[in-house]
Specification:
The chain has 9 helices and 18 strands. With 400 residues, it is an alpha+beta fold. The chain has 3 domains: 233 residues; 41 residues; 92 residues, General secretion pathway protein M, EpsM (Gyrase A, domain 2), CATH 3.30.1360.100.
Length: 400
Amino acid sequence: MLNTIWTYLQYGKHFCGVELSTHNQTEILNATVLLQSKKELNISASFKDNTIENLSKHLPKHQHIVLIVNNDKVLSKTIENKQTDALKLVYSAFPNINLEDFYFEVLSQKNSHFINICRKDYINTLVETYAKHQLLILNISLGNHSLSNLMEFIQEETIYSSNAKITLENDDILQIEKGAVVSENYDINGSSVTNHQLLSFSGALQPILKNSNTETNFSTEKKHLEDSYKQTRFYNLFIKFGGLFILGLLLINFFFFNHHFDSVNELEQVSEINQVTKKQIIILNETVSKKQKMVDDLLKSNGSKSSFYSHTIIESLPETILLSDYHYQPLLRRIKEDAPIQLSEDHILVSGSCIKSSDFSEWINHLEKMGWIAKVAIVEYRNTSSKKSEFKVSILIRND
């Protein structure tokens, strides 16, 4: 009972797995949603879409998802080796790989090792895209590896996923062959699952089973994704139960204490509240007016050429330089009430980072040659790592 309650508090009662695959060079999203009712799990929905936007219309906001990336962005190899170290197995399968650019997942079945890799920037972009549609990635798996979580529920010796034939023996995967598949239905512990649902179904079960048999180099990232989701989950629960708690207190207050006040006292209280509110509104209106005047003064201080300056500077940037701050006529001191705004007129202050010092030098030379720039001063330049430097540059505008 306590375990069921804790699972609900962590994940809710819906569990979703999504397989990202391709067919005829078209992206396909196969999704399966499981509903937990008491001690049973049943398929409540299963659908196929082509875009994340369409997928989000079928799912509630902040729904957690286990994403199975099983498209042409994932490279797969199978090797026979008595080695058990995942890193050594990856280098054996992909000798020239730079693991700073790739995520890998290794499924070892006796002496057979199934190795999948995918670029980090592709996976990270997927996570960000799902988050923009208010769908939170809880975990990630590559290729067909997540099927190993279902071995204890499958009796067949050969099964098919959306893009592969999988040969089994004694709850172990012997072979994964990409290619033509056969449409089949499987009985998974009482649930009828098609071969196109199989991977998304296994993903939906992952938060409950927690029986992953793979080794990866992105366990830290997965832990971060799970922690981020749980923070969002508990925040939403806090808002929901906090609102109910406050509403309950208000109802108790109404029913148990309202009879102590007669209608005359209520009218007097309302009148007093209105007077206080009126005074507060007047004070707030004066404050807003002052701040509006300060903002108008600040806006008037910006010259008509400010857009030209920012556009020209940004256009001149090499690909190896990234700006983090751009201040046109920066403030000389903090804005205070009833005090004039002081700006560093005819100055632009920019800062950012670069990964190639020669490009930075060429960019400074390029700026100095611009007719509207009187002087370029490097305020700060420091190396933050072996490949990256941070800088701050002051640009004096020619005032003719």
